[in-house]
Amino acid sequence: MYNKKKRRLNICANAIRLIKWLQGRVINNKNCLKSTLACFACALVLPIYIQAQPLISKVALKNGNNGKVKQKASRPNIVFLLADDLGYGDVGFNGQTKIRTPYIDQLAAEGRVYSHFYAGTSICAPSRSTLLTGQHTGHTYIRGNKSVPPEGQEPLPVTGKGLAEILQAAGYNTAAFGKWGLGYIGSSGDPLKQGFDHFFGYNSQSLAHRYYPDHLWDDDHKVVLSKNADFTKQVVYAPDLIQQKALDYIDQQSDEKPFFLFLPYILPHAELIVPDDSIFASYKGKFVEKPYKGRDYGSGAVDHGYASQTYPHAAFAAMVTRLDLYLGQIMQRLKMRGLDKNTIIIFTSDNGPHIEGGADPAFFNSGGPFRGVKRDLFEGGIREPFAVSWPGRIKAGSVSDQPLAFWDLLPTFATLAGVEKSIPDHIDGISFVPDLEGKGNQKKHDYLYFELHEQGGKQAVVKGDWKAIRLNVDRNPNGPLLLYNIKENPAETKDLASQYPQIVRQMEKIMQKAHTPSALFPFEGE
Ligand SMILES: [Ca+2]
C-alpha cells in the first residue's frame, strides 16, 4: 500500500519536473532528467503539456508575476531564431506531416509567413555574413566556411556598420546565444566586437557538429564542460544549456531598454543526436529506420565527427520538435515577463536541409516543393521557412510572396529601431517594414544574387519569376546558365535557357555586375 502511494507520488513529481524542464526552469539538471526520463508516465506529459501550454501561461499571469515589465512601445524588442540546416518543408506551416512543430505553426498563424524568403547562400558562414552585413554574397566579406586557427572561422572585420552594431548604437541591449562561426574569440569577428553585449555558445562551426562538446564560450571565458569528459561522455546537451542562458537573458531585461536577442541554434544540423527523452520516444518506432554508423563519442573521438544513430529518422524529427519547444519556451517566457506585446519574433533557417550524419531530407520532404539541399543554389538549398509575429502590428495569418533575403534584415531591424539613418549606403538589402505592417510603399528588389565557393563554384540570380544558375564557375567563369521559371516550375526541372536567350544574356550581365572579386574567397582564376 505504502509502495503504491510512493510510486504515485514519484510519478507526479517526475511529471512536474518534466513540465518545469520544458519551461526551461531546470534544464540540464542531470539527476532530475535521469529520474524523469526513467518514468513511464512522462511519455504522456509532453502532449498534455503542449495542449496545456496556453493555460499554463494564463495561470502564471493570473497568479501575479512580479517579474513583469512595462516597456514603452515605441521601439520593439527583436527576437531572431535561426535554425541550422532546417529545410523549407520541415515545418508544419509549409506542409510538413511527419514532424510536430506546434509552436512554429502558432507563430505563423499569429503572424506573417514569407513564402519567398531566401538565405544568404546554401552554407552557414557566408549566409550569416549576409545577415550581419546587409550585403549579398557577391559583396559580403565572408563567402565560405573557412576554418582558421586557433579556433573557429575566418573573422568578420570590424566596420561599425554591422547589424548588431547598429542596434547596439541605437540603444538596444544585444546578445547572441548559439553558434557563431564568424571569428574566434579576441579576433575582429568576436561577437563582442560585432555589436553584441553578450555571447554564449559555440564559437566554432566545426565544434558545433558535436552536441556534447568539451567546451563552449561565455563571452571571452572558456566554459569547459567537464561532465562531457573530452567527448567520452554524453551528459551536457549543449543546446539545452544554451537555451537556459537565453531564457535567463530574457529574465534580465528591464523596461529601460529594448533588446535584440539573436538565437542561432544548431538544431537540426548533423550530428543526429538528441537526449533520450519523451520527445525522442514519441518518434521511435514510428518510421522505417536505417541505422547510421558514424564516429562515436569515446576515447579517440574528435571534435567534428557525426555520431552513430540507430534511429536517424526519429532523431531528426525529435531534433526539429525540440527546436520547436525552444521557440515555445521563448514565447512563454516573453509572455510571462509581459514583453510579448512589444516583441517581434522571427523564425527562419540559414540554409537548406543537410544530407549528413544519416539525415534523409527526401523522406521528410524537407525541401517542400523544391529541388536541392544544402550546398545547392536550387531553391531547396536557399529558400527558407520564414515566419514573423508582432502582436497588433502584423496581420495574423497573413502571407507575403515578396522575394526577400537575409541581407534585408539589417535595414529592416534598423528601421524598426528608428535609426534608418544608420543604414549604410553600400548594402544590398531593403527594409521590408512596409510589407510587414501592410502600409507604406514597399521597395522591391530588381534581383537577388547568390554565390557559393564550394563544389566547383556556383552563382545564381532570382529576378521575378526567372532563376538562373551557373555551375562550375571555377573552371568556366563564363560558362552556360541553367534557366528556370520558378513560378511555373518551382522544382527547377525544365531548363529553358535555349528558349530564352535574351533573358539568359540579362542574367549573365547581372552575375557579372553583382559579383565583386574577393581575395579571401576567389573563384579559381580570379
Ligand atoms: Ca547551416
Structure description:
By secondary structure, the chain is of the alpha/beta class. It has three domains: 2-62, no CATH class; 113-447, 3-Layer(aba) Sandwich (Alkaline Phosphatase, subunit A); 455-514, Arylsulfatase, C-terminal domain (2-Layer Sandwich). Helices cover 30% and strands 14% of the residues. The chain has 14 helices and 17 strands. Strand 6 (215-218) and strand 7 (221-224) form a beta hairpin. Helix 1 (2-22) crosses helix 2 (30-37), helix 6 packs parallel to helix 12 (409-416) and helix 7 (238-252) runs parallel beside helix 9. The N and C termini lie far apart (81 Å). The structure holds calcium ion. Calcium ion (CA) binds at residues 84-85, 124, 269, 350-351.
Write the layout of secondary structure elements.
Layout: H1 2-22, H2 30-37, H3 42-62, E1 77-83, H4 102-110, E2 112-114, E3 117-118, H5 124-133, H6 163-169, E4 173-179, E5 198-202, E6 215-218, E7 221-224, H7 238-252, E8 259-264, H8 278-283, H9 312-336, E9 343-349, H10 361-364, H11 379-382, E10 383-384, E11 387-389, E12 398-400, E13 404-405, H12 409-416, H13 433-437, E14 448-452, E15 458-463, E16 466-470, E17 482-485, H14 501-514
Parallel strand pairs: 1-8, 1-9, 2-12, 3-13, 4-5, 4-8
Antiparallel strand pairs: 2-11, 3-10, 5-6, 6-7, 9-11, 14-15, 15-16, 16-17
The chain binds calcium ion (CA).
The site of calcium ion has 6 residues, from loops.
